[in-house]
């Protein structure tokens, strides 16, 4: 009985040893599996996160490029418009100055020549002027004659 | 029939003056003719009339013998002419001397109309040249007009100085 008890005890002990060993192995495997799965999941998530970040970065870069391009274009347009306005204003100012200058010169001439008319020396010019416009007078005479009839 | 005008009868005023002269002469002529017919006495001295009026009377006498009726006819013809004659106004920069007036009237009668009446005026602001009003037109060939017309060219000219 004691021998059987001892034999049973030995068999139990051996089985317990085996079980303990299996349990240790299984725990170890489970730990390894959990670690591998966790690494894979984290790695995959990190990769997705990285891809997302890259996509966002690319999108942001493209948008920034478009905005920059638009700003440059707008800047060019503004510059061209400003150039045009400056040019127009410059021309306008030149025109105004020319107008005032012309008025000043004309006034000066009218004022200085105003009281020195020498009709004697102008006689040939007066006759020449009339000669140049003789046709106008003749036309007027003809029109008058036609109207009188 | 209208007497041919001398260049000394240039303006409507000259013509009016000539008509007055002819009228004075006609009055004297009628009185002298009456006096001679009634008393056979010497007529009074002929009234002083302008050379233009005398020239018109002489010209008229060359066409038909002078009589009270023919002189009345002359006056009527001249008055009719005064209302119907073509008129022209020439404005100069100063009062026109007689010689220039004659030249211009002569030109107008040779080239525009032989019976045109030319009135002379002056406006010192014209500076020179002339302004001619004829019919419904005013032709401005004054220096003032030319200066004002060319004033836009002054700045350009000054830029090249």
Query: Uncertain spans of chain A, ≥5 residues at pLDDT below 50?
Result: none
Q: How would you characterize the largest beta sheet of chain B? A: 4 strands, mixed
What is the number of independent domains of chain B? 2
User: What is the count of helical runs of chain B?
Assistant: 6
State the separation between the terminal residues of chain B, measured CA to CA. Answer: 63 Å
N to C succession of SSEs of chain B: HHHEHEEEHH
Q: Give the largest interface pair and sizes.
A: A-B, 32 and 37 residues
Which structural category do the helix and sheet elements of chain B fall into? alpha+beta
Number of beta-strand segments of chain A? 0
What do these coordinates show?
The complex is a heterodimer of chains A (149) and B (161). Chain A is an all-alpha fold and 149 residues long. Chain A has one domain (2-143). Chain A is 95% helix and 0% strand. Chain A contains 3 helices and no strands. The longest helix of chain A is centred in the middle third of the chain and has 112 residues, at 2-113. By secondary structure, chain B is of the alpha+beta class. Chain B has 2 domains: 12-84, no CATH class; 87-149, no CATH class. In chain B, 53% of the residues lie in helices and 15% in strands. Chain B contains 6 helices and 4 strands, in the order αααβαβββαα. Chain B has helices at residues 12-38, 51-63, 68-84, 98-111, 143-149, 153-159, and strands spanning 87-92, 117-122, 129-134, 137-142. Chain B has a 4-stranded mixed beta sheet. In chain B, helix 4 links the parallel strand 1 and strand 2 (117-122). In chain B, helix 1 (12-38) crosses helix 2 (51-63) and helix 1 (12-38) runs antiparallel to helix 3. The longest helix of chain B is centred in the N-terminal third of the chain and has 27 residues, at 12-38. The N and C termini of chain B lie far apart (63 Å). The relative contact order of chain B is 0.14. The model of chain B has no long low-confidence stretch (mean pLDDT 86).
């Amino acid at each position: 009985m004691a021998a059987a008890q001892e034999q049973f005890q030995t068999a139990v002990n051996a089985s317990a040893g085996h079980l303990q060993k299996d349990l240790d192995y299984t725990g170890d495997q489970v730990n390894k599996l959990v670690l591998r799965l966790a690494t894979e999941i984290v790695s995959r998530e990190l990769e997705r996160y990285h891809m997302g970040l890259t996509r966002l970065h690319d999108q942001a870069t493209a948008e920034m490029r478009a905005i920059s391009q638009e700003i440059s274009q707008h800047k060019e347009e503004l510059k061209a418009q400003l150039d045009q306005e400056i040019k127009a204003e410059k021309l306008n100012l030149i025109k105004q100055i020319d107008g005032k200058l012309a008025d000043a010169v004309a006034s000066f001439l009218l004022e200085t020549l105003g009281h020195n008319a020498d009709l004697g020396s102008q006689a040939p010019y007066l006759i020449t002027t009339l000669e140049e416009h003789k046709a106008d007078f003749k036309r007027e005479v003809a029109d008058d004659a036609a109207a009188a009839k | 029939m209208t007497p041919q005008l001398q260049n000394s009868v240039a303006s409507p005023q000259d013509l009016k003056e000539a008509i007055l002269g002819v009228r004075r002469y006609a009055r004297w002529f009628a009185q002298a003719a009456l006096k001679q017919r009634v008393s056979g006495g010497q007529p009074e001295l002929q009234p002083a009339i302008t050379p233009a009026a005398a020239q018109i009377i002489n010209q008229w006498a060359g066409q038909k013998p002078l009589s009270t009726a023919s002189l009345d006819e002359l006056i009527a013809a001249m008055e009719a002419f005064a209302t119907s004659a073509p008129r022209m106004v020439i404005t100069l920069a100063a009062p026109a001397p007689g010689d220039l007036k004659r030249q211009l009237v002569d030109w107008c009668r040779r080239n525009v109309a032989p019976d045109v009446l030319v009135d002379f005026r002056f406006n010192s602001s014209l500076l020179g040249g002339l302004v001619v009003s004829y019919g419904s037109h005013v032709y401005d060939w004054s220096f003032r007009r030319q200066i004002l017309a060319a004033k836009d060219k002054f700045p350009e000219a000054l830029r090249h100085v």
